[in-house]
Amino acid sequence: MKNNLQIMLISLIGVAVLGATVLILHFTQPRPDDNPEPAEPVPASVKTVFADFLPEDVEKITLFNLLDKDGYTVSSDGNDGYTIPELNVRSKNVPYNQLSLLNLAADAASLSSVSTVEENTENSDLAKYGLGDSPRANIKVTFRDGTELAFSLGGTLPVGSGVYLMVEGDENVYELSGRVSEGFLRERHYWVERLAFPQYDSFTTPVIERVTVFRPNESETPLIIEALPQLPLEESRTFNTHRITEPISTDLHPERSSSAIYGIFGLTAAEVAWIRPEEIDMEFTGLGEPSCRVEVEFADSKYTLIIGDAVQGIDSSRLYGMSSEVPDVVFIFAAETLPWIDVQPKDIISSVICTPYIFSLERLLIETDTLTYDFEIIGDTDQQSFLINGEELAAARNSDFKDLYEFVIRASGDELFFEDGGEELILRISYVYRDKSRDNDVLEFYASSNLMNIVRINGNNLYKTKGAYSARLLANVEAFIAGEEIVTVW
Predict the structure, then answer these.
(1) 86 DSSP assignment
(2) Which of these, 200, 187, 186, 188, lies nearest to 94 by C-alpha position?
(3) What's this model's pTM, rounded to 2 decimal places?
(4) C-alpha to C-alpha distance for 90 and 328, rounded to whole angstroms
(5) Can you give the pLDDT at residue 384?
(6) Given a cut of 60, is residue 488 above it in pLDDT?
(7) What is the rounded (10 degree) CA torsion for 15, 17, 20, 24?
(8) Which of 110-114, 181-185, 312-316, 400-404 bottoms out in mean pLDDT, i.e. has the lowest?
(9) Which pLDDT score is estimated for 456?
(10) What are the DSSP E strand ranges found in 215-325?
């Protein structure tokens, strides 16, 4: 009991001391009506204007930077455009990106800072700003009235994208907008247009008649895609416009084949590597003996793209290339923009095997080892009649034949199959075209394991499909002959 009283006494003394301390702090704090000295105001950032001209007032801009240590000049061409004389020495037909050059001239003509970083740096170590003896860039702008503006660019500020700037004759260090600084840090080839081929205009560009892809290191046989005969407008939205004819002959998948057919139009490079390459440049880039050559033919025109080696370095997913439309320029393309370098028939063929427009046919043959059904197609959509094995079909049954034909062209592949195989013929379908310049298409169905059929198209094994389709087709032909209903499921 005595010990408990001692503990309580000590606790009460502690509380009393704490309360006294709080009172002392309270009475010694400044009162709300006290007037302490105001803090020194922080000076606001002040924009400094170094040039106040219009873009057309710029006569030339001379640039030396880390990407182009030899330096180059952007000069007015006297006709509201700009050239780079160092590139024009190699070719008189350099396709400059005039919009980008105009933006560079505009930035030079109205150069101004974002803020002042340090004043009076006469005794300061400018190396900490990336300036001094080794700046990232030295630029000199000459205006038409003879005024000159020289400045240097250093490193990037710790916060944001601004770049340190010093102007000749001024001891201050400034911040220049990161966006404005970008143009002055570019190498000379940046200003060359990177559009390798014009954009495709479906209203004015003719039908793409043929696409040929040569890959000599892979195969002696090129991959060839050709246009199908143009169809009536009401059919053109339903059927393919192109098919592959080499190394196999079959229909294409409209979406998966699109980039191989139209990808050359509007093709834009990631960079420009050279202007007017010499023989040593062609050897270095692999363009002397290209690994891939693409030809796109339409009307009386032909676009040609050659693709060379991968660019050496950390990023090998870029390749050298040249365009027939910009013959003096060696481009660097991102690999993903070049579908032709590795496209294979299996990547672009359609799983729907063959879908010719019915009135593009002269006849349709459906054969087995013991039977032949010869359907002759006469006339067009306005004047139409059908013969089967030489006998004319009653007009009332025209729609029945169309139902049968729709089932025929629904043949599809369940999986790709390029191996050898196929001994026992189940069924053969032959499409005989009216246009004799077009090769006929022949589909053959052979027995395979697991109730599947191997589908051979024009002599090449391409698919496997369920055997139920060929069985149902033969049953539907018999039903058609007997005047019975066509069954559309299998």
Answers:
(1) H
(2) 188
(3) 0.75
(4) 9
(5) 63
(6) yes
(7) -130
(8) 312-316
(9) 94
(10) 223-227, 242-246, 250-251, 271-275, 292-298, 301-310, 318-323
